[in-house]
Write a structure and sequence with these properties.
Blueprint lengths: L1 E4 L14 E4 L2 E7 L14 H18 L7 E8 L5 H11 L6 E6 L8 E8 L2
Parallel strand pairs: 4-5
Antiparallel strand pairs: 1-2, 2-3, 3-6, 4-6
Protein name: Endoribonuclease L-PSP
InterPro entries: RidA, RutC-like_sf, YjgF/YER057c/UK114
GO molecular function: deaminase activity
């Protein structure tokens, strides 16, 4: 069974996709940028601020589906510059403090003004 998830507390999708799709016990969260849900604009002047906003948006989507960060099993991180890796990790380590999910981090060309994009997969037993 497949269910599309949309959260009113996360930025509206800017294309033909859902915030997340739940398939059985798995939740696949679409890539999130540092977009303020109220303004619809990318916010945050540095990687730390953008990382915090990205994970706030992801948290809203997880919550809408009845999941939490504790359920996250895989994280894909796209940084506009790998030079931001250490600063990103400072914020990331406050979100995932134990039972760390698997993770991939790559450098990628993102939308103008975006320093980071993150998607996650969560699972419940």
């Amino acid at each position: 069974m497949k269910k599309c998830i949309v959260s009113n507390d996360a930025p509206k999708p800017v294309g033909p996709y859902s915030h997340a799709v739940q398939a059985g016990n798995f939740l696949f969260v679409s890539g999130q940028l540092a977009i303020n849900p109220m303004s619809g604009k990318i916010e945050g002047e540095d990687i730390k601020a953008q990382t915090q906003l990205v994970f706030k948006n992801i948290e809203a989507i997880l919550k809408e589906a009845g999941f939490s960060f504790e359920d996250v099993v895989k994280v894909n991180v796209y940084l506009s510059s790998l030079e931001d890796f250490a600063k990103f990790n400072e914020i990331y380590s406050t979100i995932f403090t134990q039972n760390f999910p698997a993770r991939t981090t790559v450098e990628a060309k993102l939308l103008p003004g975006a320093l980071i994009e993150v998607d996650v997969i969560a699972a419940k037993e």
